[in-house]
Amino acid sequence: MPHYSVRMADSIMAHQVTLTDHYGYEYGMTLEGILDVYHATHEQKYLDFVITTMDTFVNQDGTVNGYRMDEYNIDHLNNGKVMLKLYDITGQERYKLAAAHLYEQTKTHPRTSEGIFWHKAIYPHQVWCDGLYMGAAFMAAYVSRFGSEQDFDDIVAQFTKSYPHLKDEATGLLYHAWDESKSMYWCNKETGLSEHFWGRAMGWYVMALADVIELMPASHSGRAQLCTILHDCLLALIKVQDPEAKVWYQILNLKGRKQNYLEASASCMITAALFKGLRLGVVSQEEALDAATQAYQGLLAEFILECHDGYLNLNKICYVAGLGGKTYRDGSYAYYMSEPIISNEPKGLGPFIFASIESERLQG
């Protein structure tokens, strides 16, 4: 039987999961997972699929359909990681040009007074955990290829400046978001923090840290700081891992509260980060190996169902969750429980492949 990473990539392709109807960060994440399967198997069909899909957006001159820099949407940077990996593989200049165009946004993207990127221009003064994955991890991918060691200074600062604002000292968990202006209707007017520990928010944050640490030069002075932050975040997450199912809840610390549920995308992200943290030596085997191994088995038991045709479904994915905007996304418990729960959504599919690849790599 093929590895689950291969089976999920095959399932995404067979099910014709929508990845091209708009320029979406989640699509890039799923394509990045399929590229990981290509590197593991060297099967051309995976590379061909990623190229065909990305070429919906990347033009021959390096312009990107659906992207506007002046929107200052940090989500739109994430797909640059796929462009960079396609440039590595194919050598086609258009992918490098497209990624460089995205990187230009980081030079003028609005920031807090401490230099942390706003989540979007339409969300002024707001730092969301999600944005660290979209912005800082892409920057690390870009500067590791075309920048200098000094360019990592700004990337490190994105984490070291955001972490104290987002962290809850009692649990070590991170709140979904922080508003420096303390003016948004969803935030605590004294702290600027949103109300809850949303699972996928912390999933984004720990995956971003793991990706950046992997790409950073060992000689960079900030690497140790990021390792400490990731170590502490992962240990805090292990403490709220469900003792029976071994995966994580939509609201991390509220097991047993009415309607709270075990959620797939957060669980896949956290599992992937645990395994990568082990591989990079950020957490020890004594601290995290059992938790990671049991979490992966939990993903298979709780969220994966095999179809009659042998392909896989990934279930129990929170479709979307945010704060503010045109709809009244107030960050309340009721809000997080109200968002649709669906299957085979790219925000879960990509992280499932990441977790599978890391688990399979550990097993040799």
How are the SSEs ordered, and which strands pair?
Blueprint: H1 4-15, H2 25-41, H3 44-54, H4 80-90, H5 93-108, E1 126-128, H6 129-146, H7 152-166, E2 177-179, H8 199-215, H9 223-239, H10 264-280, H11 285-302, E3 304-306, E4 312-314, E5 317-318, H12 333-338, E6 341-342, H13 346-362
Antiparallel strand pairs: 1-2, 3-4, 5-6
Helix pairs in contact: 1-13, 2-3, 2-4, 2-13, 4-5, 5-6, 6-7, 6-8, 7-9, 8-9, 8-10, 9-10, 10-11, 10-13, 11-13
Radius of gyration, whole Å:
19 Å
Uncertain stretches of 5 or more adjacent residues: none
Query: Main β-sheet, in a few words?
Result: 2 strands, antiparallel
Helix content: 40-55%
* Strand order in the largest sheet: 1-2
- Total helices: the number is 13
The chain-level mean pLDDT equals 97
Q: Could you state the oligomeric state of the chains shown?
A: single chain
Measure the end-to-end span.
16 Å
Class computed from helices, strands and strand pairing: mainly alpha
Query: Strand percentage, roughly?
Result: under 5%
Brief characterization of the structure:
The chain is mainly alpha-helical. It is built from 13 helices and six strands. It has helices at residues 4-15, 25-41, 44-54, 80-90, 93-108, 129-146, 152-166, 199-215, 223-239, 264-280, 285-302, 333-338, 346-362; strands at residues 126-128, 177-179, 304-306, 312-314, 317-318, 341-342.
